[in-house]
Amino acid sequence: MADPLPESVDDMLHDEHELLDPLGDAEAGVVKNRAKVGSARPSSLLYTYGPGAIMDLPNFSIMPAGLSDWEPIWKRRDHIPSIFEPRLLKVVRLHLGEQVDALRPFPWQPKRMGMSNEGSDLGIPARVFPQWFRCTGCDYLGPLPRFSYANTHPFRPDLAQFTHKNCPGRGGKSKKKSGSPAVPAQHLLTCANGHLDEFPYSLWVHRGRKCSKANLPDLKMRDANVGKSVGSIIGCVSCGRSRGMAEAQGSVGREKLPQECRGRHPHLNAFDNKCDARPALIMMGASNLWFASTQSIIVMPRTDAEEKEALAARLRVELGVEQVEQFGNQLDVIKALAGAKNIDLDGLTNADIAAAVAAVIAPADSEEERQEKRAAWDPVDLLVPEWRYLQKPALFPQQQNSSGLMVTEMRRDPDLHPRISRIVAVNQMKKVNAVLGFTRLDEMDRVNDLIGRLVKLTRDGKPTWVPATEDRGEGIFLQLDLDAVASWEQRLLSTSLWSAHRAAHRRNFERRFSETAKNVDPDVRLPAPRYWLLHTLSHALIREMAMSSGYGAASLTERIYGWAASPQREAAAGLLICTTASDSEGTLGGLVALSEPDRLRGLVVSALRRAARCSSDPVCAMRTPSDPEDFLHGAACHCCSFASETSCEKANRFLDRRLLLNLPTATGETVPGFFGSPDAL
């Protein structure tokens, strides 16, 4: 990851047309130090440190830039790689617009030799953020240009740091010519519309006015861990005024902050014209500072229609719409151009190619039509094709290896619990993940009533491509008896336990911090009981499989297929536990080996027996939310059911062991556990 440094704060804040090119000055012969300052795995850049997030480096923090700034990096290559997956690209275009024509991997290239410079001209551009620093030697608080930057060792990016030259020290007597290290100031302002800005320290300490002694006063940030003044205290050296940051916290402190948001997007180096949201204080390391909005699919063997969509997508990306329009009536020319781009047309008739050309040049849906389709779209739509394919074992021997999916219907052990109806070993799989954008303060999967809450990835808000990753791995699919699940679900709906969960879910939404939460009907977001059942079972199996598969629990992820029947889709009740890796070889087979009948039977029994007990029982086993509580789980905690963020698709929400097994309740009510009594396992 490369880090360009601005000439001044004004250049950073207001030059909306400046594109970051980390090596641009070096190529022009101008000597500037813009070396790489860190690295991250593709999965980390997708889910944790994407554009707009703050990434902590050893000595300062950076923010990956928006997609507009990635273009100079891509232009270093004659060919820009793309991930062609029509099913996922269609969803991205539905959300972000018809102009999106490609899914691109991150600009990264592995080195063949340890000391090689191969791939050194690739990387993700980033900006230093926050741009206010505090000197660790004298507590001076100031903007970026007041500090010196050093990053001279080409193979030690961890040594890059900012220093306060000629730091006088806290007593003013121990002046350091080499300077003292500086660290980022941790207070920021954000709003529900996803804007992020520096905290106005000078205005804060002077209570909204200018300093009476100086136009640009020097500030100090001191820690005060005494009495009630926990936190930092900002002091003005010129006029002597001071004010604690504790005053800015909470709803009362929010009233003391600026009432208007400036609409700043640091990752885009731009400001929005108007923002009607109220800014709030947020700390640099807060967990709700950045939430990725992503969609992922497991690549399935394509139907004929999907193959034609894939061809149209490749022609659109590789040849461009203008070139396809120009030669659309000359199929021989189209074939020649496709061959030059290594687009495989073998086995396709002229009619197939003409249909793909027509799809490329066909007029896009109007904005109104796209909005209607997006309003009707359900994330479950991405899971339905996968569920349907897994229901057709007759297709498994005819697998198309080009899809990267190889699955095997496994023999079911006769002693396996009868309510587990099928086992499918996923020997090989390919998972594609794409970024739609991000939100702040609230996750999009919980409050997605306003698509405008997605923070844009480019300055104009109309990206032509989005970052994506392509992972390979293995997994195990378990399917529950659909009739048994439907019968159990009807019984559970009438229990007081489910009523308590539904009421807690409503309270959770009503108390949401986000100003957009009032537009959401809580009941339409509450997963059905079968989802709670599958989710809790998945966590129990992940914990058990981690002890036998050779993979850590954080490396195992879940994919839940749990929804009731509707006019649009048939009912589903299954779960896929998988592990994937971003390298081309995939994983080692330790997980899929657990699908052998005897091993799986013992693993399921052991997982259910462990789920029957928790070291926090009876407190955990009897936990039921009641007014005013609004937590979204029942008999589940870190000791028995919670999984890591990388494993759980719902952030450890919607879990309850009482849905798995017959466990005691606080009211004495008998809650029907799907697998019955633990003693009968």
From TrEMBL:
Region described as Disordered: spans on this chain: 161-182
Which top-rank group of organisms is this from? Bacteria
Pfam families associated with the record? MZB
- Annotated InterPro entries: DrmB, MZB
- Domain MrfA-like Zn-binding as annotated: residue spans: 537-640
What is this protein called in UniProt? MrfA-like Zn-binding domain-containing protein
Please report the organism this UniProt entry assigns to the protein: Thermomonospora umbrina
